[in-house]
Amino acid sequence: MAGARGLGLLLALLPVVSAAMPGTVVRLNKAALSYVSEIGKGPLQRALQVTVPYFLDRSGEVLRPTRIQILDVQVSQFHLSFIADFGIHLSAAANFTFKTFRVPEPLELTLPVELRADARVALSSIGTPMVSISRCFPLLGHPSDFDDSNSTSRALLGLVREHVNAVLSNKLCLGVASLVQELNVHLGTLIGLNPVGPESQIRYTVINAPTVTSDYISLDISAVLFLLGKPIVLPRDAPPFAMPPHVRSEDSTATVGLSQHLFDSALLLLQKAGALNLDITGQLRSKDNPLNTSALGLLIPEVARQFPEPMPVVLKVRLGATPVARLHPNNATLQLQPFVEVLAVASNSAFHSLFSLDVVVDLSLQLSVSRAKLQGATSVLGDIRVEVASSNVGFIDKDQVHALMGSVFEEPLLEHLNALLGIGIALPNVVNLLYVTPEVFVYEGYVVVSSGLFYLH
User: How far apart are CA 393 and CA 322, in angstroms?
Assistant: First the structure.
């Protein structure tokens, strides 16, 4: 598998196939090729370290099988480029060091080789990205004798060269093909679920063949979120999502476009999972705690009458409506509409409903990327809007309740929400792939992550 890592990084972001809803675009730019070229020499060198069969030495009266071994392969140049509407072109230059174990004097020589290969990028029958070598040809140079003190004849050297040329012309391309097969096995690991929460997962799927231009490889991807093994389906179809050709791609290795559909699905998942629900309580004996019947009775006389002794108060926050994310240029916001029930704990530990509120909270949403996850953080925008939904304690002054919500509701809500969004959601990736120095940009209806890549060996 190690041999696939260098070339494999080219398609490290390519997810898997099965869903039909487009929601994400992944684009690998020319900088990705440069990075792969940089780290891919080692895997390519190992793939080119082929076995050379025995050479039949005809220089004497008796045919003598002579062992030839590749002592070392050094890839001095490795370059990758896009082939529009096809895939990737590979060119490499390497020096092969051979040792011929001839008696009485072994022969060491070097052979320069240039390697050219074209690889098609497509989708396999099982729906994973697949790379295949369509054309490969090595160009072998003239060997040089490392050991000037040996007495091996130039005729023998010519025979050895012919033997090595015949072997390498076939086996080097087989070595590259083997490397690509390891890559395809590695890409097969993209099929699977990435956890989002204890009972939820996300799966990215490629929905058509890659688009290859002279500047990048681009993939249309769908993101499906699952709760308890069941897919999250929005009540409305997602419109087609297309990212402009060169948005934030000038210096980035990878550009990932995330549509409104993905954010809507993630918020629906949180709402269905009940992850946004919380209970807000206070310390009964704290002097600053307004969440008890004594403090609340100062605002609502009926509460003081029903609870002459201080008792704890609990705010049960429940989101019946799905949160709404809005994406505008350089501005992402989130709106929550929780239903808040205010309950007092009676002396028998039973809950007694005092009143309930319909609340609207507008939040600023800041997005960031850590390693391979998109994370969020929020802060309240403007005032929290409150309406009394029902009351078991008579008339309630909305302004007084609004002040209460600002002091005891806002901070716990933000802490809870930011803890959830801080967990993050996995971006398209494979194991050991990290996003480095990422930048997040918000556009009308979509978000772009522009990033470098780092592959852990």
Answer: 29
Three-state DSSP class for residue 443: strand
Q: What is the pLDDT of residues 116-152, one digit of tens each?
A: 999 999 987 776 778 899 999 898 887 765 444 444 4
DSSP 8-class letter at 310:
-
Residue 317: predicted pLDDT? 95
The per-residue pLDDT for 107 is: 75
Task: Give dist(CA 94, CA 114) in Å, integer.
Answer: 6
Report the C-alpha gap between 330 and 347 in whole angstroms: 52
Pairwise CA distance, residues 379 & 421, whole Å = 12
Say what angle helices 398-408 and 410-423 make with each other, to 10 degrees: 40
Q: Cis link prior to 104 (omega < 30° from 0)?
A: yes
Residue 421 — pLDDT band, cuts 50, 70, 90? very high
DSSP 222-275: EEEEEETTEE---SSPPPP----TTTT-SS-SEEEEEEHHHHHHHHHHHHHHTT
* The pLDDT of residue 70: 87
Residue with tokens 């808040």: 340
Q: What pLDDT digit, counting tens, does each position of 21-58 carry?
A: 558 898 999 999 999 889 889 999 999 988 888 767 66
Place of tokens 């020589």: 109
Q: Which structure tokens are listed for 429?
A: 């990736």
455 near 432, Cβ under 8 Å? yes
Spatial distance between the Cα atoms of 169 and 50, rounded to a whole number of angstroms: 11
* Whole-number Å distance between alpha carbons of 69 and 101: 8
CA angle (447, 453, 454) in 5-degree steps: 145
- At residue 387, φ and ψ (nearest 5 deg) are -130, 140
- Per-residue H/E/C for 381-436: CCCCEEEEEEECCCCCCHHHHHHHHHHHCHHHHHHHHHHHHHHCEECCCCCCEEEE
Three-state SS for 97-120 is EEEECCCCCCEEEEEEEEEEEEEE
For residue 104, the tally of other CB atoms under 10 A from its CB is: 6
What are the counts of helices (DSSP H) followed by strands (DSSP E) for the chain? 9, 25
Domains of the chain: 29-188 (3.15.10.10), 232-455 (3.15.20.10)
> Interior CA angle at 96 toward 91 and 100, to 5°?
155
318, 305 in Cβ contact below 8 A?
no
Query: What's the number of CA atoms in the CB half-sphere (13 Å) around residue 153?
Result: 7
